[in-house]
Design brief:
The protein is of the alpha+beta class and 633 residues long. It contains 22 helices and 21 strands. The strands form four sheets. The protein has an eight-stranded mixed sheet with strand order 1-4-5-6-7-8-9-10, covered by helices on one side.
Length: 633
C-alpha cells in the first residue's frame, strides 16, 4: 500500500458510492441555484480580506474550484451544497433588505431605514464585516449604521460587530438589539469550555485543510470560519417576549423568541412592511445540529419544532420571502410555509422516533444506525445532513434524555482509551496482526472498521508509523464519502494530523471583548474551572476583594474548590488578605494581565494582610491547552 504523505485518490468503493448519490437525487433541480443567485447586485473587486497587518483572514475565490465537475473524492450532494454556499456578493432579498453572502461562515443582512441601515448578524471577524458593509455601500450608497441586531449568541453572528459600528456610535444612541440571555450565553460558551471548543472547531470547520477536491470543500452551513478579529459590543436593548415590536430608524420589527433551539438565546424577526421573515438559524438549507461536533449544550428538538409551527402560525400569512443568517432565501408564500413545515417535521421526527426506540430498549448507536428519514423529507434538499446529521443528532436526543450511559453495565466502567487500546491489541494478536487484517478490510472498502480497529493500535503505540498511515488513509476515504461537511472536515483533519502532526487551532473566540463582557460572577466561575484540584487539596486561602464602588467579594480556595461569595454574609470566610482596587484592575489581576505587586507599587491597589496569599491562590490555576491531542493519545 502506498503510504504517501499527501492526500490519496478515492478508492473504488468510495468512488462508486459517490456515483450512486448522483443517481439517487434530483441534481437537475436548479431552484436552489436560482434562489441563491436571485437579486445579485455585484461582487467585491478585492477578493482577499486582510487584517491590519496584511494577513489574509478570508479569500472569496478560494472555493472557485467548486464550479467544476464533482470529483470522486467528494460526495456530490455536499459538492452541490458547497457550490451554492460559495455564491458570494451583495444580493437584494426584497426592496430595502440586502444580504452579503459568502464573506464568512454566515450572512450579514442590511435593512435600509429612513436615515441609515440596520445591520443584522455582523459575521465572525471585524475585517470580513467591514468588507461586507463596504460592498453594500458601493452599490447602495454610504449610509450610516443606525442599528445593530444579533439574532443569537453564536460568535458568527456578533464577532465582527466592530467592523460596522464603534463604541462611540453606540454610546451616541445606535441601538444594539439582542434576545434576552444573549450576553450570558455568548460569553459563557466561548470562555468556560472555549479552549476545548476552539480545538474541536479546528477539526469541525477544517480551517487548516487545503481547499480543494481532496481537502476542505465547505462545512455545509457555509464554507469555513474567518480568522480575523473577534469582538463584542454589549447589547443596549433586550427582546424579552414573542410579539414584542420595535422600530429602529423607521424599520418596524415583530419578534418571536425561540430560546433553546439552535442557540440558548435566539429570536426570529418579521418585517411587516416588507412581508419578510428572518429565521435567524432556526430554518436553514440543511439539517442542523442538535449537538454540534465542536461541543455545546444539547438542543431541544421538541421545542425547536414547536417554534417552527409557531412561526408559521404567526407570520405565514404575511410572508412572501423567508431568509436566514446562512444560505439563501425562500420565495413565495406557499414555498415559505412548505419550507418551514418540512424543517419542523425533521426535528420532530428525530425527537419522537428516538424516544420511541429508546423506550423499547435500543441504544444510541443502534437507533442512529437504523434511523431513516421519511421519503418526502429525504427528497427535500434542505433537510439533508450537511451540517448536522441524522446519526449524531439521534445520539444527541438520547443524551438529552438519558445521558452518556446506554444502560449496559459492561459500559459503566470501561478502561480509558490508552489502557483499553493496549489490551485490545494484545488480545487481537499484536499490532502486526491487527494491521494485516485491517489492510484486508481496507481493500474490501470497510473503512469504518479500519478506523475503529486501527485506532487501538495508534493509542497503544502512537509511534507506530504503519498504523498512523493506515488510519490516515481510512479516515481520508470516509471523508471523501461524507455528505456532511463537518464529518468530512473531521476525517480529513484527523488524517492530516496523523501524517504531519498537530496543525494547531487557527482561531480563538475568547477575545478581549468576550472576556471583558464576563460579569464578575462569571469571571470567578471561569477561574474555578481552571483550579488544579489535586494540587490544591491541602490549600486553604481566603482573599477578600473590595472593588471600588461595588460589593465585596470573598474568594476561598479549600478542598480543591474555588468558591466566591458576594457581600458580607455568614458564607464569607475570614480573609487572609483584603485588596481594594477598581473593577478593571481586579479583572486584570485575575486574568494575569497585571501583577498585584506592580499595581500596588503604582498606587492602583491597597492591601491589608499578606499579599503573597493572592499569588499563592492564582498559582493553583492551570492553563488550558489549545493544542491538545485528538487522534493520538
Amino acid at each position: 500500500m502506498n503510504r504517501n504523505d499527501g492526500p490519496r485518490p478515492a478508492e473504488r468503493w468510495i468512488a462508486e458510492g459517490n456515483a450512486a448519490v448522483l443517481r439517487r437525487f434530483p441534481f437537475d433541480d436548479t431552484r436552489d441555484l436560482d434562489d441563491a443567485r436571485h437579486g445579485f447586485l455585484g461582487a467585491a473587486g478585492e477578493t482577499v480580506v486582510r487584517d491590519a497587518a496584511g494577513r489574509p483572514v478570508w479569500d472569496l475565490d478560494a472555493y472557485g474550484f467548486l464550479r467544476g465537475e464533482c470529483p470522486a473524492t467528494a460526495n456530490p450532494s455536499l459538492w452541490r451544497q458547497s457550490g451554492l454556499c460559495a455564491e458570494h456578493g451583495l444580493f437584494e432579498v426584497v426592496e430595502g433588505i440586502y444580504q452579503v453572502r459568502g464573506f464568512d461562515l454566515s450572512n450579514m443582512t442590511v435593512v435600509e431605514g429612513e436615515r441609515g441601515v440596520l445591520v443584522i448578524d455582523p459575521l465572525i471577524s471585524s475585517e470580513t464585516a467591514a468588507a461586507a458593509l463596504a460592498l453594500y455601500r458601493a452599490h447602495r450608497g454610504d449610509r450610516p449604521v443606525t442599528g445593530v441586531l444579533y439574532t443569537h449568541s453564536h460568535v458568527d453572528h456578533f464577532g465582527g460587530v466592530r467592523g460596522v459600528v464603534t463604541d462611540g456610535e453606540v454610546a451616541g444612541g445606535v441601538p444594539v438589539i439582542a434576545p434576552r440571555g444573549f450576553l450570558e450565553h455568548a460569553v459563557k460558551e466561548n470562555v468556560y469550555a472555549g479552549t476545548a471548543m476552539a480545538r474541536r472547531a479546528a477539526y469541525m470547520y477544517g480551517a487548516a485543510l487545503p481547499k480543494g477536491e481532496r481537502g476542505q470543500i465547505g462545512a455545509g452551513l457555509g464554507q469555513t470560519t474567518s480568522t480575523g478579529s473577534v469582538g463584542l459590543i454589549t447589547p443596549t436593548l433586550d427582546v424579552t417576549r414573542t410579539g414584542q415590536t420595535e422600530t429602529v430608524d423607521g424599520i418596524r420589527m415583530v419578534f418571536q423568541m425561540t430560546p433553546g433551539t439552535e442557540a440558548p438565546a435566539e429570536l426570529n424577526i418579521h418585517f411587516p412592511d416588507h412581508a419578510a421573515l428572518c429565521m435567524a438559524e432556526n430554518a436553514t438549507h440543511n439539517l442542523h445540529n442538535l449537538l454540534t461536533l465542536r461541543g455545546a449544550e444539547v438542543r431541544d428538538p421538541r421545542q425547536w419544532a414547536r417554534y417552527l409551527t409557531e412561526a408559521v402560525d404567526l407570520f405565514g400569512d404575511d410572508t412572501d420571502v423567508a431568509f436566514a443568517s446562512h444560505h439563501w432565501p425562500v420565495r413565495g408564500r406557499e414555498r415559505v410555509v412548505e419550507f418551514l413545515s418540512e424543517q419542523r417535521d425533521v426535528y420532530a421526527y428525530l425527537h419522537d422516533q428516538t424516544l420511541r426506540r429508546l423506550n423499547q430498549g435500543y441504544t444510541p448507536l443502534e437507533i442512529a444506525e437504523e434511523m431513516t428519514m421519511p421519503p418526502a423529507l429525504e427528497r427535500a434538499w434542505h433537510t439533508h445532513g450537511y451540517y448536522g446529521s441524522v446519526s449524531h443528532n439521534v445520539k444527541a436526543v438520547y443524551q438529552r434524555y438519558l445521558g452518556w450511559f446506554d444502560g449496559n453495565p459492561a459500559h459503566l466502567w470501561e478502561h480509558p482509551p490508552v489502557e483499553s487500546a493496549t489490551r485490545y491489541v494484545e488480545f487481537m494478536g499484536g499490532a502486526d496482526e491487527v494491521l494485516r487484517r485491517a489492510r484486508r478490510s481496507f481493500a474490501e472498502g470497510d473503512y469504518r472498521w479500519v478506523v475503529q480497529v486501527v485506532n487501538h493500535v495508534v493509542f497503544a503505540d502512537p509511534g507506530n508509523a504503519e498504523a498512523r498511515a493506515l488510519q490516515a488513509d481510512a479516515l481520508e476515504q470516509l471523508g471523501y464519502g461524507s455528505e456532511n461537511g463537518t464529518w468530512r472536515n473531521f476525517y480529513l483533519t484527523g488524517a492530516l494530523e496523523l501524517r504531519h502532526g498537530s496543525v494547531g487551532t487557527p482561531t480563538t473566540t475568547a477575545s478581549t471583548d468576550l472576556l471583558g463582557a464576563l460579569t464578575l460572577d462569571q469571571l470567578f466561575d471561569a477561574l474555578a474551572v481552571r483550579v488544579d484540584g489535586p494540587g490544591s487539596w491541602d490549600a486553604d486561602i481566603c482573599v477578600r476583594w473590595l472593588p471600588k464602588g461595588g460589593d465585596p467579594v470573598t474568594l476561598r480556595l479549600r478542598n480543591g474548590v474555588l468558591t466566591h461569595v458576594t457581600g458580607e454574609g455568614p458564607a464569607a470566610c475570614e480573609p487572609d488578605v483584603e485588596v481594594t482596587l477598581g473593577e478593571d484592575d481586579l479583572r486584570a489581576v485575575l486574568l494575569g494581565a497585571t501583577a498585584l505587586p506592580d499595581l500596588v507599587e503604582r498606587g492602583g491597589a491597597e492591601v491589608a494582610g499578606d499579599p503573597g496569599r493572592v499569588a499563592e491562590l492564582l498559582g493553583h490555576l492551570d492553563e488550558p491547552d489549545p493544542d491538545f491531542a485528538v487522534v493520538v493519545p
